[in-house]
Amino acid sequence: MNGALVNLEGNAACALGAIAAGCRFYAGYPITPSSEIAEWMAAELPRVDGIFIQMEDEIASLAAVIGASFGGMKAMTATSGPGFSLMQEHLGYAVMAEVPCVVVDVMRGGPSTGMPTRPSQGDIMQARWGTHGDHPIVVLAPHSVAEIHREIVRAFNLSEALRMPVVLLYEETLGHLVESVALEPPRPEDLVERRWADLPRERYRPFACDEDLVPAMAWPGDGYRAHVTGLVHDERGFPTQNPEQVRALLRRLHGKLERHRGLIERFEMLQCADAELLIVAIGIAARAARAAVRALRRAGIRAGLFRPVTLWPFPEEAFRRAARSARAILVPELNLGQLVREVERLAPAGVPVRHLGRVDGEPLMPEEIICALEELAA
Amino acid sequence: MSDALFTSADRFDIRDYLRLDLMPHFLCPGCGHGIALRALLWAVHELGIEKDALAVVSGIGCAGRLSAYIDANTFHVTHGRPLAFATGLKLARPDLTVVVITGDGDALAIGGNHLIHACRRNLDLTCLLLNNEIYGMTGGQVSPTTSATRYTTTTPAGNREPVFDACRLAEAAGATFVGREATLQLPTLKNLIRDALAHRGFSFVEVISDCTEIFGRKNALGNAPEMVLRQKAGMRPEGWGNRVDRPFRPHPFAVGVFVRKERPEYRELWEQTVRRSRGGEG
Q: CB A70 to CB B114 under 8 A?
């Protein structure tokens, strides 16, 4: 399918992109609206010497993924809100133990079992803060089938480069949306492979690192015989409560993101240069916003769209640039106000920020965004 | 198997398998878990398993902390989930011998679901459940194996709940090797673990261990030697056939190998799936 146009739904593009990224292990538990990813993986992974396993629940799924990653495989799971809640424990473990892995959350209506077949953006904050304790996290939010295919590759690259879990977040609508896409599989040089320890055993400390703040990982069987734990640990990997070592570890885990912001951040600015009315949106809300911007521009209104593709860490500097000429900012999202909090935090002083939320299980329409912007401009 | 017992003991030096720089260890005086650890490492030694090829995955609790002391590839994971982590690790790396160390709370309460599914799948893992009847790490709360009437911090009037028989659970869920032994009999325990490690498929070993400092004190069970001798009073070595209905302390409990059978191993079945997917013979 190299380069040729194919009709694919988002969940299929996710699975195929993962395999193209080098994913060879999938463990998961069925849940609407993400199950197609598991079904594609179950069919495709055996063809590429990969492993698929359906686990007993989502907790076990992410545990098995992390276990496979301990063993050196690129590994992932996919789920939706309720399952994502169950995975929070192991997201935190992967952050703490610095284990690369990818988790896809195809968002449905919540809370609780909610609306399995309806879109939502209710997990924006769960993806950021779902697991306990101060933790860094990378969350990518694609808005089209083609972008799902690209971003799942980037999710694997970032997780390997940074040794941390990366979450891919999109709505039910995108998971089941069929679009014509020209799949461009990544070239081998586009794929990031994990850095394995090559120091002599006597000198190797599993959680020591150089200025890039990402330690080289020990390949089980290479003679390092390393220890990994979810407890706060020293550079050797063993539990510590020494305040100096505790602070150093937590600072470094967060520092990894700061150090590599350039690699992590991706965003789209649509006609932001002179935009007086700025929209900030992700995923399918951004698709409606894009249509709204076009319509408003045709009417001579200077509207623009800032779309974070990397949702967390939020691309702060880029947003500030996009908001330079803004007189008002609108944040349309399929929830009761999550992304808007981050925008309020970062908006230039004196610029009003308004939220446009929809939580009835229907996607936002361009007309709603246009109306809200017109109100805001008045 | 008994003829090799003492000749090989001469050559087994536990210090070859421990991270000595982490000593002293954190176990309480009299804790049975150190005996279980010794039995495991002795069995590893007898089978000639290289430390580089050994992976130990452990959960949370006193038993969970043992992995850190083993000079191997060790993974201290989350509460109740070591079998799920080990499943991913073993599937990714069939070249490694993967051992899971878990406790009664870890495996039978929070991790019960993972245990039964690991038994069902029959992936080539060895699971050691160190049963000391108590949540020791958190200060002595009741566990799914705390005997009836025993006092714990969360059963101040004595425990009323029935216990799990972990071996029967593992057998019913499909484990292809199931055995139980007590820390009283180190060489026998070592042999049981050795057989479990050598078994292809999911092996489950329950080790009757003692928590002297917390459980023993609370229930006035005497000092460590007295508690170990109490194991002997309850032990019924006749095996599965003669076991009694309530096999837990202070009731008699059966020891020995209860299940040893052949069933296709999970990874072999997966490789058939791979061949079929590629159009070859299933």
A: no
* Under 8 Å between Cβ of B95 and B53: yes
Flag whether pLDDT at B244 surpasses 70.
Answer: no
- Segment A60-69, tens digit of pLDDT: 999 999 999 9
Answer yes or no: do A217 and A137 share one domain: no
pLDDT at A278 over 70: yes
Nearest to B91 among A43, A51, A66 (CB): A51
- Mean pLDDT of all residues in chain B? 91
Instruction: Respond yes or no on whether ipTM tops 0.90.
Output: yes
Q: Do A64 and B85 touch (CB under 8 A)?
A: yes
Q: Which CATH number is B179's domain given? A: 3.40.50.970
Of A53, A61, A227, the CB nearest to B76: A227
Nearest to A255 by CA among A98, A66, A93: A98
Question: What whole-number percentage of chain B has pLDDT above 70?
Answer: 90
Q: What is the predicted pLDDT for the residue at A271?
A: 98
Q: Is residue B282 part of a domain?
A: no
Instruction: Name every chain A residue with its beta carbon within 8 A of the beta carbon of B91.
Output: 25, 51, 53, 64, 67-68
Q: Cβ B51–A221 below 8 Å, yes or no?
A: no
Residue A349's contacts (CB-CB under 8 Å, 6 or more residues apart) are none
Is some CB atom of chain B closer than 8 A to the CB atom of A202?
no
Phi, psi dihedral angles at A275 (to 5 degrees): -70, 125
Residues A323 and A355 in one domain: yes
Structural domain boundaries, residue A108:
5-190
Quick: pLDDT tens for B77-94: 999 999 999 999 999 999
- For chain B, the domain total comes to 1
Same domain, yes or no: A21 and A164: yes
Handedness of CA B272, B277, B280, B282 (dihedral sign): positive
Residue B56 three-state SS? strand
Whole-angstrom distance, CA of residue B206 vs CA of residue A219: 30
- Can you tell me the distance from the alpha carbon of A136 to that of A154, in angstroms, rounded to the nearest whole number? 17
- How many Cβ contacts (< 8 angstroms) between chains A and B? 135
* Chain center to CA of B104: 9
